[in-house]
Amino acid sequence: MEIIIQPTAEAATRVAARIIARLLREKPDAVLGLATGSTPVLLYHDLTALKLDWSRVTTFNLDEYIGLDAAHPQSYHTFMWENLFQHINIARENVHIPDGNAKDIPKSCAKYEQQIKAAGGIDLQVLGIGTNGHIGFNEPTSSLASRTRIKTLTQQTLKENARFFGSEDRVPHHVITMGIGTILEARQNLLLAFGQGKARAIADAVEGPVSSLNPASVLQMHPVTQICLDEPAAGQLKRADYYRWVYDNKPDWQRV
Ligand code: PGA
C-alpha cells in the first residue's frame, strides 16, 4: 500500500488525477473502474479539465441502487453522466454501470462479471471508503471473496446517504455492487478519502488487521494500491510520518 498524504482534498485529488492521466496516456484503451459519492466529484472535474482522450477507454462502475430508474436524479447512472461522461469523449457503449432495474438481478450480476473479464479485466479501480470501511457497497462482514451481487445497506449507510435523497426513508435499501473479490482482481486500486469523518475507517483499513469488519482492509492483500488522503482523513494513522517520508523520498521515475 502506498499512502499519499496531502494538505488538502484538492491536492490529494490532483495526485489521483495524475495517476489516472498517466495510465490513459500509456494505455489509451485502458479499463477503468469508477466510483460515485462525494469523494470523486473533484477527481472527475480534474480529469475533465485535463482533456484526455477517452475514445478507447472502457469503464465499469462499482455499484448502483436497486429500483431507481437510470434517469432518477440520485441514480449512479445520472451521477456518472453529470459528473464525468457528458464532459469527455467516451463511447456510450464502453460505459458499464450495474443495472438496478434488471428483471433477473443475479443473472445481470453474473453478466457484469463476464463483461469485466471480456474487457480484459480492470486496469485501475477508483475507490471511496465508507465511514464503516465499505468499498463499493461491500458493507462490513461482506465476504472477502465476494463477486458482483445484491447487498442490503446498513442503517449507518442509509443514514449517511440520506443527505443525497432528502430523507432516510427515500434511500433504497438494496444495491448491486462489485464484490471484494472483483475489486481485488483490478490490477491497481486507487482509494481516495477526505475529511475527519473517514479517519477511523482509514486507520483501520491501513494499520488494522485484515478483516471483513473493515472491507477496505483487504487492500493490504493487493499488490498495487495507492491511497490518497487529505490531512484530516490521515489524522488517526499512527505511522503518518513514515508514509510522508516514503512519499517525499520516492525515486524520480516513480513520481507522478
Ligand atoms: P462518499 O462515500 O464519497 O460520499 O463519502 C464514499 C463511500 O461510501 O464509498
Describe the structure.
The protein is α/β, with parallel strands linked by helices and 256 residues long. It has eight helices and ten strands. It has helices spanning 9-26, 41-49, 76-83, 105-118, 155-165, 180-184, 199-207, 240-248; strands spanning 2-6, 31-34, 58-61, 63-65, 95-96, 124-127, 149-152, 174-177, 189-193, 225-230. Strands 1-10-9-6-2-3-5 form a seven-stranded parallel sheet. A three-stranded antiparallel sheet has the order 4-8-7. The two termini are 16 Å apart.
Structural features:
256 residues, alpha/beta, seven-stranded parallel β-sheet, three-stranded antiparallel β-sheet, 10 strands, globular, binds 2-phosphoglycolic acid
In brief, what are we looking at here?
This protein is α/β, with parallel strands linked by helices.
**What ligands can be seen in this structure?**
2-phosphoglycolic acid
Number of helices: 8
List unreliable stretches of 5+ residues: none
In which range does the helix fraction lie?
Answer: 25-40%
Name the overall outline. Answer: globular
Strand order of the largest sheet: 1-10-9-6-2-3-5
Mean pLDDT: 97
Class derived from helix and strand content: alpha/beta
Instruction: Characterize the main sheet.
Output: 7 strands, parallel
Cα distance spanning the termini: 16 Å
Tell me the total number of β-strands: 10
Radius of gyration: 17 Å
Beta-strand percent range: 15-25%
Q: Which series of helices and strands comes N to C?
A: EHEHEEHEHEEHEHEHEH
